[in-house]
Structure prediction request, 151 residues.
Amino acid sequence: MGDLIFFVILLAVGFSAGTIAEKNHYRSLNKRESNLVMIPIVNTKSGIDPDKEIDKVYFVSGSCVISHDYFKFILASLKTIFGGRITSYETLVDRGRREAVLRLKEAAVKNNCDEIFNLRIETSSIGNMTGNNAIGCVEVYSYGTAVRYKK
Prediction:
């Protein structure tokens, strides 16, 4: 009985810590996205506005590796038995993509760029997803072309 109570306490602590960390990350993402909203990302075929004269062109990229906590790993493992959406992995990929795009935009800001063209995002899972030493990680890499116009 004592082991079961200890396990439940550890599970509750793990769930609370993971939830707090995820909420803090989402809060940070929202704040940084609102600060970087002035740099548009354009994926149209029309390309660069011909009326504007280009000063410099940069290749910018942003990447991140993000992992989930063990509590979510346990829940996702249980969910695979019954089927359906695995929302814990959806938030993992969402946070990774948003973080990678923010890092790309921050790289563009460092070069005083005005726009980013042709954003591409690559996602891959890394680490062992099965077994006792399972570590589920997602690597997200975003890249694009940043343009600085003459002023």
User: Anything to note?
Assistant: The two ends are 72 Å apart (CA to CA).
